[in-house]
Amino acid sequence: MFQIASYETFQNGQIIFEEGSNGDWIYVVEEGEVEISKNVGGQNIVVEILKEGDIFGEMAYIDKSPRSARATAKGTAMVGIIDRSFFDAEFNKLSADFQKIIKTVAFRLRKSTQRSVEAEKGKGA
Asked: How confident is the model at residue 116 (pLDDT cuts 50, 70, 90)?
């Protein structure tokens, strides 16, 4: 399915990428689990736990915005880094209109996730 450029193994609690960092890569969980979390008002809120086969890091890559969340290994996790030239070639095969639709979906998902996380934090306050 995906062409993997390289594999990296992360230990429990090791950060794969930080919220706000550049989104140069898309990842796929090969083994283990990855926690996706956001920092809201100094509080870490778990957005999702990813398992084998799940991809992450795609929103920042697609919409060229900073990462919207932190990715951290839960236990030992091996991730594949999707070959950038492969993804670029596949994405560029899409029409400009369809690329715009995908970028719009990524932008709306980013906004929706932020609102949901802020609402969740508000419940705990």
From this structure: confident
Q: At 47, is the secondary structure helix, strand, or coil?
A: strand
State residue 125's pLDDT score.
52
Tell me the residue type at 32: G
Which is the CATH superfamily of the domain at 4-124?
Jelly Rolls (2.60.120.10)
Report residue 111 CA to chain centroid gap. Answer: 14
Cα 52 to the center of its chain, rounded Å: 14
pTM of the model: 0.82
> pLDDT of 40-75, one tens digit each?
888 888 999 999 999 999 988 888 889 989 999 999
The ranges assigned to domains in the chain are 4-124
Give CA 6 to chain center in angstroms: 17
Burial 81-90 (b: 16+ CB within 10 A, else e): bbbeeebeee
User: What are the distances in angstroms from CA 15 to CA 10, 64, 96, 121?
Assistant: 8, 21, 34, 22
